[in-house]
């Protein structure tokens, strides 16, 4: 199966000797859901931001659909969408205007843009509220709108940082099902979360990250079996405790 | 006790480090303006005691009058006699390196002796539209001093003769008629400098207001736009989309510049309407002709020159706001971060209205010139009064500052700094902190 993303020794050094992310290596195949799990400050967001071309890597590289984040960031952005954790939307725009604006950036023509808006409108399920200003939305509604925006263009790789944060259980379940369905259609996902139960349910493969180091990768069942754990939280605890790096 | 705790909490929130810094800067700005003003007033008082006379009549009476002028009014006046070689007053003032001259024309003594109102000429130059630039030896002062001197002469002569006719008593009330000429750059016209100053005062006051509002609004708009995008994380979404950072940056700056330009047009339109309503009662066309003759009515090309510097200032303000907006951590810090731009615009704004910046002491002058916005505040005056070397020098300086600030802004916007750089107010021990993503 072809790799949509190949991350090779990716590092981010803010000050001399201080790494937010160090020598991170993993790959994501077409239609695969890969999740980075770890506590706050583990380096998940830094790694994701480097892959999203927002931050420049100080060492290593990541290749998205054959394009390097270092030499072809523009091409990389054409193949990804990124949903930051706790992201907002333009409060003075209506939901529909926001989707139209974002679609105009991702689409190559107006027909494609209209199609993206139609898809996003269906995905977010906001109905008539799409005609209201985003400033009047609840946190959950805004998150659904943003998720819809992130997947409306069906990118090769959707990077979602804490995708269900702020959503109630029903909406969170809907989103998880949707991610799985889209992955089955060939879309790849890079997720980041500290909700290990969610990750266990939705991910094909998991990467455990702590203090900037990617400690272990594998499918949830492989990791559970290897560490003799009942769930990913236990796996995480054992991996971190046994790690020589930390 | 509860109330005291509430009061303490509110005061703590209001008296932040940025509020205190603002107060310190206001005091410093006002002190600077006051100090500069003191120098200008001292110079004006000194100038006021200098009288330059061209005695074309050259009679015993005029010579005695000039002697009287040296001590009239209870003060020692420095009287200098000059000879004008032509009626081209602009050229003559420049040649003699003087700012004004009182001319006793031929026949002056004869008029006085006949008991008529005697004509004198007052030629003064106008170099600025600022309020304090017209303090000094103006036509009113000249008239008053010469009137007093003539009265003193006439009294002594008539009283010595032992009688005064009714016509002579009337002559005492108004012994002279001043024929005024005002020189602006290399042009001159028969108009009082006071009337001219009143006519141009609108321009002298409102152009700086427009410039200040433009810089303030456009900077505030862009700073808010960038900081809000950063705080709401919409900037991350936008910059991870298939669009170049330069496009995002250019769109932001251009939109702020367009809104600023629309605002400038609206202000100018309003100002024009207001000025027209003020001059409707007067013989506007007559004054307009004089203003045009003196170059005090801006032509389309001159408006363009003023507009160029306005645009340069707005762009400098925008590039600085872009950097400052990137530093904002929250709405509160974003509001505080606009202060440096406001203050650097406020200093030349206040000074340009009150004094002619060119006349400041060298140290003050170059400090004020170092603020790039200063040149825009002086632009219309420089163009009107023909100080083109100062205009172009200022413009070149603005372009250099613009290039530096734009380079810095682009560097911040196209690097990690846009996400990692924050300036935290009130956090002990750290002024700038690099946030770990």
Amount of helix of chain B = 55-70%
Using only C-alpha atoms, the radius of gyration of chain B works out to 29 Å
By DSSP (H or I, 4+ residues per run), the number of helices of chain A equals: 9
Number of helices of chain B: 18
Explain how this protein is built.
The complex is a heterodimer of chains A (246) and B (437). By secondary structure, chain A is an alpha/beta fold. Chain A has a domain at 3-87 and 158-242: 3-Layer(aba) Sandwich (Rossmann fold), CATH 3.40.50.300. Chain A has 9 helices and 10 strands. Chain A has helices at residues 44-51, 73-79, 95-106, 110-124, 139-151, 169-184, 196-202, 220-227, 232-242; strands at residues 3-15, 18-29, 33-37, 59-64, 67-68, 80-83, 157-161, 188-193, 205-210, 213-218. In chain A, the strands form 2 sheets. Chain A has a 6-stranded mixed beta sheet with strand order 6-7-8-3-9-10, with helices on both faces. A 4-stranded antiparallel beta sheet of chain A has the order 2-1-4-5. Chain B is an alpha/beta fold. Chain B has 2 domains: 17-40 and 201-273 and 284-434, no CATH class; 49-190, abc type-2 transporter like domain (abc type-2 transporter like fold), CATH 3.40.1710. Helix content of chain B is 67%, strand content 9%. Chain B has a 6-stranded mixed beta sheet, sandwiched between helices. A two-stranded antiparallel ribbon of chain B has the order 7-8. In chain B, helix 8 runs antiparallel to helix 13 and helix 12 runs parallel beside helix 17 (388-413). The radius of gyration of chain B is 29 Å and the shape is elongated. Chain B starts with a helix and ends with a strand. The interface between A and B is medium-sized, with 34 and 19 residues.
Question: Which descriptors apply to this entry?
Answer:
heterodimer; A: 246 residues; alpha/beta; Rossmann fold; 6-stranded mixed beta sheet; 4-stranded antiparallel beta sheet; 26% strand; B: 437 residues; abc type-2 transporter like fold; 2 domains; 18 helices
């Amino acid at each position: 199966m072809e790799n949509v993303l190949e991350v090779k020794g990716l590092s981010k050094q803010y000050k001399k000797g201080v790494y937010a992310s160090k020598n991170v290596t993993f790959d994501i195949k077409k239609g695969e859901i890969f999740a980075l799990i770890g506590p706050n400050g583990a380096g998940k967001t830094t790694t994701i931001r480097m892959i999203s071309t927002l931050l420049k890597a100080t060492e290593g590289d990541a290749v998205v659909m054959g394009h390097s984040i270092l030499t072809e960031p523009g091409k990389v952005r054409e193949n990804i969408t990124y949903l930051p954790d706790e992201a907002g939307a333009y409060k003075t725009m209506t939901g529909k205007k926001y989707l139209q604006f974002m679609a105009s950036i991702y689409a190559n023509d107006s027909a494609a843009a209209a199609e993206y808006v139609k898809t996003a409108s269906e995905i977010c399920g906001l109905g008539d509220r799409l005609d209201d200003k985003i400033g009047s939305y609840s946190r959950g509604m805004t998150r659904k709108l943003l998720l819809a925006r992130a997947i409306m263009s069906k990118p090769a790789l959707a990077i979602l940082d804490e995708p269900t944060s702020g959503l109630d259980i029903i909406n969170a379940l809907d989103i998880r099902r949707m991610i799985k369905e889209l992955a089955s259609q060939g879309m790849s996902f890079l997720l980041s979360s500290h909700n290990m139960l969610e990750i266990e349910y939705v991910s094909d493969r998991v990467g455990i990250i702590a203090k900037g180091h990617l400690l272990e990768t594998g499918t949830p069942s492989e990791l559970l079996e290897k560490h003799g754990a009942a769930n990913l939280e236990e796996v995480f605890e054992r991996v971190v405790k046994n790690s020589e790096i930390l | 006790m509860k109330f005291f705790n509430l009061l303490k909490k509110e005061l703590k929130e209001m008296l932040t480090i940025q509020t205190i810094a603002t107060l310190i800067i206001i005091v410093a700005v006002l002190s600077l303006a006051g100090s500069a003003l003191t120098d200008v007033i001292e110079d004006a008082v000194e100038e006021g005691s200098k009288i330059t006379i061209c005695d074309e009549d050259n009679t015993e009476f005029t010579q005695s009058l000039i002697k009287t002028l040296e001590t009239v009014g209870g003060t020692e006046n420095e009287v200098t006699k000059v000879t004008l070689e032509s009626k081209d007053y602009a050229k003559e003032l420049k040649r003699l390196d003087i700012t004004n001259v009182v001319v006793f024309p031929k026949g002056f003594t004869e008029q006085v002796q006949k008991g008529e109102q005697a004509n004198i000429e007052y030629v003064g130059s106008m170099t600025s539209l600022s309020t304090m630039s017209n303090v000094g030896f103006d036509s009113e002062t000249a008239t008053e001093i010469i009137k007093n001197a003539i009265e003193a002469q006439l009294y002594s002569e008539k009283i010595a003769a032992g009688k005064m006719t009714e016509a002579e008593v009337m002559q005492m009330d108004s012994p002279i008629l001043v024929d005024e000429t005002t020189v602006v750059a290399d042009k001159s016209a028969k108009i009082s400098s006071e009337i001219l100053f009143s006519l141009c005062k609108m321009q002298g006051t409102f152009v700086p207001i427009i410039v200040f509002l433009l810089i303030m609004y456009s900077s505030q708009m862009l700073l808010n736009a960038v900081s809000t995008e950063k705080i709401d994380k919409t900037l991350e979404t936008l910059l991870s989309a298939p669009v170049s950072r330069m496009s995002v940056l250019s769109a932001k700056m251009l939109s702020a510049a367009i809104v600023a330009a629309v605002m400038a047009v609206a202000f100018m339109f309003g100002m024009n309407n207001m000025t027209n309503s003020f001059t409707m009662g007067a013989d506007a066309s007559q004054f307009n002709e004089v203003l045009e003759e003196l170059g005090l009515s801006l032509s389309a090309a001159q408006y363009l020159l003023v507009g160029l510097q306005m645009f340069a200032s707005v762009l400098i303000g925008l590039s600085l706001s872009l950097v400052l907006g990137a530093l904002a951590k929250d709405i509160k810090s974003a509001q505080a971060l606009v202060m440096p731009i406001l203050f650097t615009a406020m200093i030349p704004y206040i000074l340009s209205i009150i004094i002619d910046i060119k006349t400041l002491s060298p140290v003050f002058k170059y400090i004020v010139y170092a603020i790039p916005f200063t040149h825009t505040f002086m632009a219309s005056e420089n163009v009107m009064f023909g100080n083109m070397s100062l205009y172009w020098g200022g413009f070149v300086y603005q372009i250099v500052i613009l290039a530096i600030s734009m380079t810095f802004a682009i560097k911040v916007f196209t690097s990690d700094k846009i996400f990692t750089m924050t300036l935290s107010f009130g956090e002990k021990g750290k002024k700038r902190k690099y946030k770990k993503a």
